[in-house]
Amino acid sequence: MNIFQFRNLSLCLALSSLLAPGAVAREGQNHPTGRDPLETVALDVAESERVRTDAEKGDAQAQVELGRNYQKGAHVPQDFSEAVKWYRKAADQGLAEGQSCLGEMYRKGNGVAKDAAEAIKWYRLAADQGFHSAQACLGQMYMRGEGVTKDDVEALKWFKIAGKESLDLGAYFDSKVILSRLNREQVAEAQKQADEFVSSKPKEKAGE
């Protein structure tokens, strides 16, 4: 099945489910979103087409969105290799989100051969631009010694740079485990290195 057949089938299935008995709201019953479900499906398809068009024109953010669609199988057949292709296009343009997503694919071995060192490379590029999820992933990889020499101080440094508000549940608990393994001097060293990293980056201007 090619991509165009898949889109048409997806649209038909979505419309069929909406038109099934009981699926359409009764007269006088408002839709939760205030929008007709048929209109929502049409808008989703139109948005998917816009993303593809923009991605093919070289828009890096659209390339990440298209890559994510392929990774998740949203509006297109799930295809990790295609996801990697579009993430790489965005990453090669220097978009931190694309670099982080590409790092994730290498870390998990989705669409490419699993390669922790390559994952570190892309995560670091994103982390250096201030992308918090990549910073948290670096912390986890240093904690476990994935593609790098295991280093708890370096791991804590990256967790601190990311900030606890940016850590998912797994990374948050990992940071607590790291703290339990380090002494006061090591924690202070991690904080010092984190502060030096943050201070070395240009401050954003107000309103940006």
Q: Can I get a quick summary?
A:
With 208 residues, the protein is an all-alpha fold. Helix content is 69%, strand content 0%. It has two domains: 1-18 and 38-98, no CATH class; 130-201, no CATH class.
- The quaternary state of the protein chains shown equals single chain
Mean pLDDT across all amino acids:
83
Number of continuous helical runs: 10
Number of domains: 2
Pick out the low-confidence regions: 11-29, 204-208
Head-to-tail CA distance between termini: 45 Å
Q: Which tags fit this structure?
A:
single chain; 208 residues; mainly alpha; 2 domains; 10 helices; 0% strand; elongated; disordered C terminus
Give an account of the 3D structure.
The chain has helices spanning 3-19, 37-56, 60-72, 80-92, 96-108, 116-128, 132-144, 152-162, 169-181, 184-200. It has 208 residues and is mostly helical. It has 2 domains: 1-18 and 38-98, no CATH class; 130-201, no CATH class. The protein is elongated, with a radius of gyration of 22 Å. The chain starts with a helix and ends in an 8-residue tail after the last helix.
Itemize the secondary structure elements and their pairings:
Blueprint: H1 3-19, H2 37-56, H3 60-72, H4 80-92, H5 96-108, H6 116-128, H7 132-144, H8 152-162, H9 169-181, H10 184-200
